[in-house]
Design a protein that fits this description.
It contains 12 helices and 16 strands. It is α/β, with parallel strands linked by helices. Strands 5-4-8-9-3-10-11-12-13 form a 9-stranded mixed sheet, with helices on both faces. Strands 14-16-15 form a 3-stranded antiparallel sheet. It starts with 12 loop residues before the first strand and ends in a 5-residue tail after the last helix.
Length: about 350
């Protein structure tokens, strides 16, 4: 094919500068950071035409097909979709493939290494479906080895071609491996192709700059067709919303978006890999308990199980006051400082 035979096309964005139609996107991250809840939130917005977290949604409501294996439909997915405000009539769960073997029809779990033609038939029969979610990708590889680039890359290329032919967006979800020293593009569990083939890859991590421990970050790992100045991420936290199920209140996570983030994912991962930074939450809890009974000598505080740098970070987090006495430097909680000030004691 000559280049002159190819008609140029503008990028068709599902979510501008974040997720493309006719493309493959990856959501990845460690457990318990809310990547599943964010996926549900975006699915809900797509099915209702609600605006995206930081910009207008120019699309009419659309249908979404979900291949999900780790969460129960009745106990987890549908309640989460309800809390997120999704149009449940527009969400389809693809559960099984019907296969014919020796003139007998059988059903089995979907395996993308052999069932892509069936997925395409489903899309042709349901043209309102514009998004497919695969969560997690590793559960739908069939006989392919997740850690083998030779196995996974051809499948992802086929998924990308399917998205291009049908005009849909495919979002695959994957976990991080346990190598804290790797960059984000290499942290995705399994073959390197899982992060390399998609045009867009987003990582979900804890916000280590948030003192409350509640904030999370959605940060770009790669965005092939977006200029650098537009690759900003998003901050969010997970709130609990009560849903009445069979007359009983059940708490479900709901995403609250907190605005843009300029953080870089590799910088965040590097800070998280620092063992002293990872000890900070524990040190904060310990220091608060240690000083609850009253002011302590600073040298005694620093002589405990944490490094001086970590104790200093924890002290700054708690607003701990350092003051000098005749016997040396002391540390106290701010509440104690107020009480002593009221009694007229010298700081």
């Amino acid at each position: 094919m000559r280049a002159s035979e190819v008609a140029p096309e503008a990028i068709d964005w599902l979510y501008e500068d974040r997720i493309e139609f006719k493309g493959l996107a990856l959501f990845c991250g460690p457990p318990d950071v809310g990547k599943g809840a964010v996926t549900i939130d975006l699915v809900a917005r797509a099915t209702t035409g609600t605006d995206w977290p930081d910009r207008k949604n120019p699309h009419l409501p659309m249908d979404v097909a979900m291949l999900v294996s780790e969460d129960g439909l009745a106990t987890t997915l549908v309640p989460r979709l309800m809390v997120a405000g999704a149009d449940l009539n527009r969400v389809h769960f693809a559960k099984q493939t019907i296969v014919t073997f020796k003139d007998k029809k059988q059903t089995r779990k979907i395996a993308l290494d052999s069932d892509l033609s069936a997925v395409e038939i489903m899309l042709r029969e349901h043209p309102a479906i514009r998004i497919i979610v695969i969560d997690p990708l590793g559960s739908y590889l069939g006989k392919l080895k997740k850690n083998s680039d030779d196995h996974v890359r051809p499948l992802l290329d086929s998924l990308k071609e399917l998205a291009e032919r049908t005009g849909i967006a495919i979002i695959s979800v994957s976990h991080f491996n346990k190598n804290f020293l790797q960059s984000a593009i290499d942290r995705t569990s399994g073959a390197g192709a899982i992060a390399q083939v998609p045009r867009a890859a987003w990582s979900f991590v804890r916000d280590d700059d948030d003192d409350t421990g509640e904030s999370r970050l959605m940060l770009s790992v790669k965005l092939n067709n977006v200029k650098e100045s537009k690759k900003s991420g998003l901050r969010y936290r997970l709130n609990e919303e009560l849903l009445s199920i069979a007359g009983k209140p059940v708490g479900m996570p709901k995403v609250e978006w907190l605005g843009a983030s300029s953080r870089k994912i590799d910088n965040v991962l590097q800070a998280a890999a620092d063992p002293e930074r990872r000890k900070l939450p524990e040190c904060i809890s310990w220091l608060e308990r240690y000083l609850e009974s009253g002011a302590k000598m600073s040298r005694d505080v620093y002589a405990q199980k944490f490094s001086e740098a970590t104790v200093r970070r924890a002290a700054a987090n708690l607003g701990v006051e350092s003051f000098k006495t005749r016997v040396g430097w002391m540390m106290r909680l701010p509440e104690e400082q107020d009480a002593q000030g009221a009694r007229g004691e010298t700081a």
